[in-house]
Amino acid sequence: MIEWKGVSFTYPGQESDGLQQVNLSISEGECVLFCGRSGCGKTTMLRLVNGLIPSFFPGEGDGAAYLEGQDCSEIPMYRLAERVGSVFQNPRTQFFNVDTDSEIAFGMENQALPPTELARRVEQTARELNLEALRGRSIFALSGGEKQKIAFASVYAMNPDIYLLDEPSSNLDMDSIRALKEYLKLIKAQGKTILIAEHRLYYLMELVDKIIYLERGRIKGIYTPKELAALSQGQRASMGLRAVNLQQLRPQKRAKSAQVPILALKNVRLCYQKKTVLENICLQAARGEIIAVVGHNGTGKTTFSRALCGLHKGCEGEFLWGGKPLNAKTRRKRSYLVMQDVGYQLFAESVEKECVFGIKNPNAALADRTLEDLGLSSFREKHPNTLSGGQKQRLAVAVSMVCGKDILVFDEPTSGLDHDSMTQVAALMERLAEQGGILFVVTHDYELVCRVCTRVVHFDEGEMPDDLPVTVENEGKIRELFHLQP
Amino acid sequence: MSGKIKAGLWFDPRTKLLLLLLTALGATMAPSLMYELGLVMLVALMALVCGEWRKSALGLPAYLLFYLLTLAVMQTDGSSLQTTLMAFLGLFHKVYPCGFLAGVMISTTKVSEFLSAMSRIHAPKKLVIPFAVMLRYMPAIREDWHFIKDAMQLRDVSPNLAGLLTHPVRTVECVYVPLMMAASKAADELSIASVTRGIENPRPRTCLVQICFRAADLLAVVCFAAYLAAGLFWKEAFL
Question: Are the CB atoms for B26 and B39 separated by under 8 Å?
Answer without folding.
Answer: yes
